Structure formats: structure tokens, C-alpha cells
Predict the 3D structure of the following.
Amino acid sequence: MRLPTIADVHSAAERIALYAVRTPLIESHVLNDRVGGRVLLKLETLQRVGAFKFRGAYNKISRLNRGAYPGGVVACSSGNHAQGVALAASLLGFKAVIVMPRDAPAIKIARTKALGAEVILFDRLTDDRVAIANALVKARGAALVLPFDDLDIIAGQGTAGLEIVEQVKKRGLTPDLVLVPCSGGGLASGIAIAVRNLSPTTVVSTVEPSEFDDFKRSLQSGKRERNARLTGSICDALLVSEPGEITFAVGRELLSSGYTVSEEQVRDAIRFAFEELKLVVEPGGAVALASVLFGVAPAKGKTTVVVLSGGNIDPLLFAEIIA
Amino acid sequence: MRLPTIADVHSAAERIALYAVRTPLIESHVLNDRVGGRVLLKLETLQRVGAFKFRGAYNKISRLNRGAYPGGVVACSSGNHAQGVALAASLLGFKAVIVMPRDAPAIKIARTKALGAEVILFDRLTDDRVAIANALVKARGAALVLPFDDLDIIAGQGTAGLEIVEQVKKRGLTPDLVLVPCSGGGLASGIAIAVRNLSPTTVVSTVEPSEFDDFKRSLQSGKRERNARLTGSICDALLVSEPGEITFAVGRELLSSGYTVSEEQVRDAIRFAFEELKLVVEPGGAVALASVLFGVAPAKGKTTVVVLSGGNIDPLLFAEIIA
């Protein structure tokens, strides 16, 4: 198993440069005052498809030989990876079939279809999505695009880390801490490769919903731990069973102890982002923000980068949270 | 009557540099595709207090002699100017009294108080807010900070135009058109001074709610025209009776014909910003976006800068619009 390197991340950055958004890094006086430190927000909510996932998907699919995959690409995803793959496939001339859980936010299913992908729904509790995807790969002559446990996906997500290092340096700062929302670990491990290589004094940590803290527990125990459940959090983007093999191998070398936040803290963070930052953040994208708002991560007196990883939230849920 | 010049705008930029946010200029593929042109969004929603108003307020108050005004500053405002003055006064060590209409969004009244200002409410239809403010100025020994018709206020708002020119140039582009939400004309005239001086081929135009199009009609007739009403639009930030003397004198030299949008188009623009841009925009801040979304302003095939001028929207109204 080869692990992704900083060279892979630099190559990915070249591949996606013309297609992905170089997202802004912003600062809010109100947030700084509340935290008692400097907080820089990396707005992956402004990435194409509204989440960081486009970076990895484009990097991955751009390296596939289209002639070898007449059926295009197949992906399993609760939503953001689905949209990233659908858009990247469309830009690169591949067909896309996305296997999505039936309880994924309606907006994510609708958007995936709008991007030209075929969507096949499965039941999160009773169906085996891996079996469904593998059958499609075989039957159609397609390539499987994994959501996180893939060298090219991780390297693609890591380009957000390259931008963070450059954007923070441009302000004359060195971050003490980078906080990354974490599910399978693709974004966290990719960012860790970039940040730890280019800014070795900076700590990179994961943030997870408190009942889906597989990555945190895995980093503690030294082996991949599983979550007890696969449903039951509003953070629909962060519900995986366990860290990936590659993401965990990278993570155990480069990531520091993780943090967890409650459902209520996530809701409060979404409301704070609406009221004070004028930004739309989805639950899974708001966990790192929640961790600094509630003193879970040690941001006081420090310079901390918080990744807002996505903004694809159902309007009804958003309305309920803010009103 | 001396009119503000590009030199005044440059001086204002120096004064506010350490205190105001240099707001990002972003681009959205989805918006470009919808419009059929390149649209660059200037995010004044991310300015301090959630609207451009802080720029002018800070520039104005920083030029006042604190010793000469023991009562601090007095301002009349429906909300965003109130917050801008309250924060700038607080940073500069001035007391602030804000005269606000009773029907201003609750969030704007609450935030003005939270910034340390004293708030005095008046009735938009029966009270004379100018008389109330002038009485306060006299009784307390305070300085009146006008919302738009003031050289230093206009120069301060113009700093957004300086940033636009620099940020667009950095992308190797020259804008054909800059579209600015317009009420009294402080932001539009300030931006026009910066943009027309530094990028003479660029057209700067106002956008207003269709029943509050005093600036458009004034530019057409060559003299200051009044609106028939002072209430009746969700664009609470854009409800003034007529253009300012100074803003109109600048505008007739530097602004091109204005555009108007309907209430429904404003609501659709707010929804678009939520769904596609992941940004929170208030009604008055969304009029320029509405004008390009609905083909009112001629953005097709062009490079257009759209100013999103503020994001202070009542949560209940926002929830109603998106859900």
C-alpha cells in the first residue's frame, strides 16, 4: 500500500487548478472575540458543488483512461462525494452512476441528478452498498471512485491544505492548529500531508460528531475502530463505519488527537455562521467551527484554521435551526 | 459643496485599513452558467457588522475631534448604518445614539444595542427623524453622522470600489459593468468614484427595488426625484425618500442608467444565494444579484461585478424565503 505524499498533493493541485475554486480564507472579528484567539475560516462551502469533495473527485477521474471504462464511473455517497463525482465526470466526459442512501438529504439527491448522473438509491440499514456498486462496476465496465480511501482522492482533498498554508503565510502568520471535519478521513489526511510537510510546527486535528468518533478512537487505540451506528446524527456527511486503511495510515503519522462535538453544538455553530458570518454551512461542515465556539479544541490565545467543509443543507432543516 | 474625489477614497482606505475587512471577490461557475457571462461577487456581507456601512462610518468618525463632541455621535438608520456607526464609535471611543424606525428588523435593533449604542425608536410615518436627531445633537453636544450624503461617508464606501478594481485586475480582467445596490447612493457614488477613475471603460450602475427607484429616475430627469412611499418593500435597507445632494451630484457625472428589480426577483436571488452560493444575503443586499439572475442588467457575454452589500436579514424572513 503506497501512501500519498506531498508530491502527490502538488500534482493534484496542478491537475485541478483550472477547474476547482481556490476558496477564500477569511477572518471574523466577532468569532475571534468569542474564541479569544485568531480563527481563520477556510470556506470550502464556496467550492464547486458546495463542498471540498470536488477536489478529490476531479483529481481521481482525470487520471482514469476513459477508453478503459465505457461505463464511466461509479460512486457510493451520502451526497457531497456524489455531487463531486457527478460534476467531475461530466467535465471529463465520463458517465457517472451514483449509489446513494435513500435517507440522504433530498437536496443532495436532486443536485446529483441535475449534474447529469444516474442515481441508484439503497437502504442504509438493509442493503449492501458495496455489493451494489461492485455489481455495477462489473456489469457496465465502470471504474469505482471511492469516497476517501484512495491515494488520488486524498491527494486531491489535500490541495485545500496547500491553499491554507499559502493563504496563512500571506498574512504573515503560522497556524498553531488546523481543525478538519472528519468522516472517513480523506480531507483530514490530505490536509495533514500538505500542512505537516510545509508547516511542521502546525498541529492538524480531526473533529467528529460525538457518537461517530471512530477516527478519534482509532488514533487513540492505534488500530481502526468502528462506530456503533450508521444513523442518528444530523451530520449526514460524516456517517461512516470506520476510517479508511490509507487515511488511517496517513492519520496515525500526521494527525494529532481528535475532538468531538454534540448535536446541539453543531446546531449552534450553524446558527452562529448564519447570524454572525453570513455563511451557509451544513451540519457535517460545521463541526470544526463548533469545536472552537465551545472551547472543545484549544483555540484560545492561538492561531487556528477551521475548515468549513460543506454547505449543502436541506432548506427545511436550515430554516428550523435558524428560526 | 465640495464633491469627494479619488484622493479622498485613497485617504479613506488608509484610515480604515487596520479596522475594516478587505472582503473577498468570488466567482461561481453555477452563476456564470446561469447568466451566460462572468460574474464576480464582492462580498460586503462579510464586512464588519455584516454590511459595507462600517467603511464609511469608520472613515467619518475617525476624522472627528472627540473633545469637540462630548455627546459622541448621533445617527438615523434603518439598521446597517446604525450598526456601522455603533461599532466605529465604540472602536474610536465615542458614545453613539442611534435613531431607528420602530419597524426596522428586530435583529438590526438588537445588534445595534449589542454594539454599545443607545437606541431611540421613532415611527416612520408620523415622526420626523431628522428633528429627533437634530434635537439630540444640540442637547448632548454630539456630531451627526449622516447615512450617505457626506463626503467622508461616500469616500469610505468608495474603498469597496478600490478593492474591486484591484481584485479584478489581479485576475487579469477588466469589468464591463459594476452593479451596486442603491438607496441614498453613498455606496454607488463612492464605488463610482473609485471605479470610473481607475478603470474608465467600466460602467457603474445602480440597482433599486422597482417601487423605490428614485435614483434611476433622478439620473433620467437630471434632478433629484422622490419616491412615492417610504414603506412597502422587503428591502428595508433601501427605503429612502430621495438621492442625497452630494451622492446625486457625483452620480450624474459617474453613474450610468440604473436598473430595478421586483420583490419576487429579490426573494429568488436570496434563495439562489442560499442554495447555490451558500451565502446569506439580505433583501437590500441582493438587488444587484437579482438584476443579473433575471437578465435585467445586461450581463450576458460580459464581465460584471455584483456587490452583495449586506447580510443582516431577520431569521424568520430568511426561513420563509428558503423553505
The longest helix of chain B spans residues 151-170.
